[in-house]
Amino acid sequence: MAGRSKRLLELEKTVWPSEPHGMLKHLAYRLYLQCWMGKLLQAFPSATVVDCFAGPGVYEDEKPGSPLMVANTYLNHTRLAHLGHLRIICQEDRSDRVERLKHEVSKTPTAHGLEIQIEKPGKFHDRVDQLVASARRQGEEYPVLWLVDPFDIKSVSMADLMKCVAGPRDEFILTFFANEMYRLAGKNDNLSPALDRHFGSNAWRKALIYRGEAERKQAFVDVFAEGVKSRGQFEVADFGIRVANMSPRYSLILATRDMSGLQCWNSMAWHIDRVAGRGQKSGMEDQFDLFGGQSEYPRLEGELQGLAGREASWSQLVDTTLRCGFKETHLRQVLTRLNEKGLAFRASKLENKTPWPTGCAVRFYAPEYLDLDCD
């Protein structure tokens, strides 16, 4: 409790110290943005990143804040010469932090193709309509990524998030405080209205049936994700921000309509968490498959085994893989494992020496076929 109180006091200052969870969150942002910029800024002449809680642009130890982290990711991109124009829109509530942000931005190297736009001070909720109008200045067909990183649950509502991602190429990354929800939801009546606004309904109460800490936290994430999906054709993924062996302090939630977004997200997740790609303990140590061997990626293997009796195209398999939180490299590994068991075979006759080339079709079989006697 004392540590949390000290942290809250630090956050009242204009500039506050960096801490491990925040640095890991920035790493996740940076890895995602490197992929996002490489894909979208080579396909579109322009894109926008909106930093909805921009802060002062720097930490006490001189590490860059999120707006400058985004700018540096662009300026240091290996494909910079081929990237389109990037506009970064910064919104911050406090005027002292806005002034410090302006000072920090003034020191940022100028470059053709980079524009940093600092809005007047104001709360995200009060300014969201103006931010949406500014982000869509060039038209809603251009990509917009919203970084929604508040200090608390009360600062962001589902209604405001949906305003941000009303365009076909809009997506958001939200800092989701499952830890606070676990500690306070159902115990603090003052928080209930804020949770209703955050989830867009009282559906968060479904998570209260889970008693274990990890299970209830993940249930909050899952219920929120379902709420987002129910409001549009969104793909939703999450990643737990944790350091050392601690449980995640909070999660990052991605909402996108583009499978390329999931591809970038999963690449980031597996780069940081090479065991499970989720930012938390994998829970896979005791998961064995029906043949008695240990399954390295049980969720993906289970999804593919669910295709038994059918043939699937490569694009269908990739989409299934991304929705499960994996990459194409994992798909090929699992297909090889199923092939060794006699449960998956390449159906198409592509001239390729690799076992699972892009574009191939795969036929799946159920385990019971292996027990059939052949005459």
From TrEMBL:
Entry protein name: Three-Cys-motif partner protein
Naturally occurring in which organism (per UniProt): Actinomycetospora succinea
Entry superkingdom: Bacteria
